[in-house]
């Protein structure tokens, strides 16, 4: 599979709780372009991915408006 990253791994981990379950995202990535990519990881990409995953977590934590389809209108 090809993409903009030199390496990218995204894993979902699930753990049971008394109220249901908790999903944890684990993301590992390496930007291309050597030292320039390393700098981009620290300055831009890490914060971008943290905000992206946090926003998705808010969406996933809200009740589904149409349980018949399992779709959120904001997807």
UniProtKB/TrEMBL annotation:
Q: Which InterPro entries match?
A: START-like_dom_sf (IPR023393)
Q: By what name is this protein known?
A: Ligand-binding SRPBCC domain-containing protein
């Amino acid at each position: 599979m090809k993409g903009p990253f030199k390496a990218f791994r995204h894993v979902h981990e699930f753990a049971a709780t008394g109220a249901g379950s908790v999903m944890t995202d684990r993301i590992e990535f390496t930007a291309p372009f050597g030292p320039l990519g390393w700098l981009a990881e620290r300055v831009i990409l890490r914060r971008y991915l943290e905000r992206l995953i946090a926003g998705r977590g808010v969406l996933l934590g809200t009740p589904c408006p149409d349980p018949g389809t399992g779709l959120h209108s904001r997807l």
